[in-house]
Amino acid sequence: MPLSPDSPHSPAASPYAAPDDYYNDAEGKTGPELKTALHGIIKESETLSYDQVWDALKATDQDPADSSKVVLLYSGRSQSADDNGGGADQWNREHVWAKSHGDFGTSPGPGTDVHHLRPTDVSVNSQRGNKDFDEGGEEVGEAPGNFTDDDSFEPRDEVKGDVARMVLYMAVRYEGDDSHPDLEPNDKVDNGSAPNLGRLSVLKQWSEQDPPDDFEKRRNDVIYDQFQHNRNPFVDHPEWVGEVWS
Q: Where is the composition biased (Basic and acidic residues) (predicted)?
């Protein structure tokens, strides 16, 4: 039975839904045509400096229970928003699409795109490093529920889908048609400096098993409303992950 417009499970009921016409150009498309259409929609955005990312993350990752704190991606720890920097127990800016994969660094564009930048514990960020995403390894002592080995990192279950959708956003947003690299997921690990990040089959699985929650949806809205004025389409439409990467 179709959902009624006022059903609590209807997309229309979400306070974080995209504007009605935002995805018009993507309607009815699948596969490469859908990816191209989404790129055309989301590449229209404001670009932040790397310094501006600090303030953006304080807003996007605000703890719903305490607006003076942010929630750290991998550990899930709530920490003072002002306790940011380079100290061992402070939080810093994690590039979920590792900045060495494509060698874009922290320059404006992919290096400052808040859709894949998240607050993380400094030492946990260091343990993740530039590893690809996959399952397995030893548990991360400072962030239980996360695992890592020589060439991959597995985030905790609560953010597996978040990580997948951030990576796949980057692959759609940055297609090499400007001064930035053409970022593409693949089914490998240990990708080095190539503009690739894996493991795609695992990311697709994570996106399905961990659908967007209100924290992720609110984050998408804050980035759209207050900072970049573009959206992560896979937060609004997680079903598009399978339609773009079938």
A: 91-102, 176-190
